[in-house]
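Hi,

I'm pasting everything inline rather than attaching a file, because the server keeps stripping attachments. The sequence lines come first, and each chain or strand is labelled.
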Amino acid sequence: MEDGYRRDVPEIELREALHYMGWRGAALDPEFVEQIHACERELRNAAKPQVIYRCFSYEPGLNRLDGTVYQPAGRDIRRLLGNCSGVILFAATLGAEADRMIRRTMLRGGSDGLVMDAVASAMIEAVCDQTEAEFARNRAEKEQYLTDRFSPGYGDMPLSDGVLICSLLETSRRIGLTVTGAGMMLPQKSVTAVLGISPVKQEHRGSSCQSCAMRNECLLAERK
Amino acid sequence: MLERTVTLMDGAMGTMLQNSGLKAGERPEILSITQPELIRNIHSAYIKAGSRMILTNTFCANAHKLAGQGVSVCEVVTASVHRALEAAAGTDTKVLLDIGPIGELLSPIGTLSFEDAYNLFSEMLEAGEAAGVHGVLFETFSDLAEIRIGVLAARERTHLPIFTTMTFEADGRTFLGCDAGAAAMTLSGLGVEALGINCSLGPAEALHVLKRMRRYTDLPLILKPNAGLPDPETGLYRLDPVTFADQMEGFCSLGVAYIGGCCGTSPDFISELSGRWCGSVVRWDKCAVNGICSTGRIVEFDGDIHPIGERINPTGKSAFARTLLDGDTGEAQRRALLQEEAGAEILDINVGVPGIDEPAMMKAVVSAVTGISMLPLQIDSSSPAALEAGLRQAPGRCLINSVNASEESLKTVLPLAARYGAAVVALTLDGRRLPESTEERIHYAERILNAARQAGLRDTDITIDCLTMTVSAQQDQALMTLNALREIRNRWNVQTVLGVSNISFGLPDRQTVTTTFLAQALAFGLTLPIVNPNQAGIMDTIDASRVLLGMDKGCSSFVERHAGAEPKPASAGKTVRPRNTVQLETSGLSLEDAILRGRQREAVELARAALETREPLELAEQVLMPALDKVGLQYEAKQIFLPQLLNAAAAAGAAFDVIRERIADRGEHSEKKGPIVLATVEGDIHDIGKNIVKTVLENYGYAVIDLGKDVSPQVILERAVASDARMVGLSALMTTTVPAMERTIHLMHEQGITIPVVVGGAVLTEAYAERIGADFYAKDAKATADIARKVIG
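And the predicted assembly:
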């Protein structure tokens, strides 16, 4: 339910959480599955998902969001926005308490910290997916279509774009999302993203790994 | 009853500028220089609408946010102050220097240091005072630690009156979990003029947040809310001036004496407020509550029992002391967590190790503990410098442990309590002279209370310690302590504190004596027992005492905690407990299975059982090591994955501990291998990878010194050398922080340090590791353990 920027804690898929732990289909004993659920229960009490977004008109030729100083950087994002007339800037976070819960769990030793971290990654993804679905529904009514969600760090879009998105959305005062000097988001379980709005139906790529610059090194990458 | 005439503040600056064509993402502060007329006119419009207190256009005018803009902080602040003063000329309008958050999170969550934050604020404050502001408003903060640093800087670097507002969510907490009541309690203690909320949501949502603040402060409150929420499509706010002003009604009885608006408000909003509130007087009740707090939790001094955990104290704990000397605060954090989980409500922090830089260590441990625990702190030291270091760092209202009745102590400690708004433990002794009677204790308590009143403290700020003497040495003293407790609680409105475990020193079955004395002391009026909450019987005694003394209404807490508890065995002494009781649970499982399946508890029991018949070293070499190897192979073959590897390593580690215990029982030495120094490099705050490596290495039998995250090259080098490290492990997660890894390796090479360095992290590759001069690249935690085996054995 929407309450300002707040969102409900979403349900998460076990498979998603397992994916972030590097799971490749090894057998899972029931105790381990229960461990994941226990971490999830604890995290659900701590997580406070918040989402903020703003829509801007966009002219691909100028590559500028109307009424802002922001020009999305990199060839990949420009290609994605190639036939768009609008852009949604979007940021989401699980909040500081979720981070704290993960730090506390790390101190217990064993794998609880890792498991909770993975569950949290799955959770913030689920928050983003839900919000994206909301956007898509609202746009469908206006016969508009959304591009894939594209985040700083995907393809050749620099992390510094995340800083600009946060500054434009005033994420620090609106949802408590800040960026460190080295470009890291705090709380850590946070996402910034750009979505294009187009009058033309968009192709979706499915896995986000395909556009990632680290796909050849990443232990998590889904390889075909 | 307190009262105050309402002062009208102004509305939004940013919204007004955006309406004048400022683009999102542009820095509005520079307009004070480039478009002076525009800024002056906005101020004038607010004054014309009725504002009698306006804010300068300096919200983000700190050096961090202005970097790269080609103007100095002093230039921007001076110009902005002048614009406001020009507009205010000829009116009785006060001009406040507006200061917002720096924009980066403070350590230990972020990478901004206390000192850097202090200097960034000071620069703005000094420029503002020089330019002629009448006061300062810190606004829109969500981190109590950060606004506290701003207030300290304002107090120490200027003479300006200080106003503070923070931004809260509808649940009364900031994004960082700061409680509105804790903010009120903490900032009141630092001597601000008024405090309250700004930004956040609309006025309607502010009511219960302000109620919460009112409970913990006498000060007038400030309310500057947004005009509701913005529409994401248009960026426009939803409330109109009349609805906004309607929602501001009903705050009178709370003592809201400063009103205005934040995002989305304009002079029209202020006009509407002015018409309704101008000249009105608000009255409110004096605050009757005292206590201490962290940013997120308040312990009220309400006569109920609030246990203080004593385990973050290295006295007599050589392993813990060693971690502090090594600069590793992980064990302190772990102790904080264990005590909190056991039911401690306040954490005592003492870092007194001979030869340690106590103020620096106090600061580091307070910082580390507040990063993971929300419990209020008791800063414990005999060194005034260490007390002050702890008080400066702790983002809440602390308890100081302690002052005593000697002139020297009263003269140094009470002013610290007054300056930092802290409560203080008063030891009923005079310097080194211990009291020998009830009367003597009361006499010292009275002397301290008188001195405290003179120093500006309230009686409720004082917590008297009647001192526990060892009953086997001075048997008559136990009763005197108890009688003094009762007398002191009868005479004064103070809390009482007592460290109880000392009572049983030198006696057998200490637990029985300690818990009995604890129960007696609680019945005689002890409210803040200093205990080890992880020791058997302690929390049970407190839970039961709260029932018997009528504090636990309807016994509900007791029932909640103790429902389903097994009846205690007839005699629960050490000897009664047979060693092999758990074997039933583990039947059918071999020690190897227990490790492979990551079953820690079973691994411990099976290791104990195996030691009945096998030699410790033989068990380690023939069972544990091979089991770990097998786990490693399964991991390499992707039959198991990382969490399972960690669980298995933890189970093996627990079994190793049993073996080491057994070897130590025989009086032989069993040192862990290493040490290995681990750190996440400077600027990087992602430490999950490093933590996983730590878990694996420790459970593979290595001693690990964990320096934490965001660690400078210099500190890594110093610690590695000082601890005679055999290997250094560096972690970096981001492309932006790998250069810090390179700098660290560079510095080590420059200084001729040849300790092997292993590096890892999501964006590193073998080739990259080589290029930055690392000796080894580890693709994951298991690989690090393999490298350690190669390097150290």
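Residues 572-585 of chain B have pLDDT under 50 and may be disordered.

If the labels don't parse on your end, tell me and I'll reformat.
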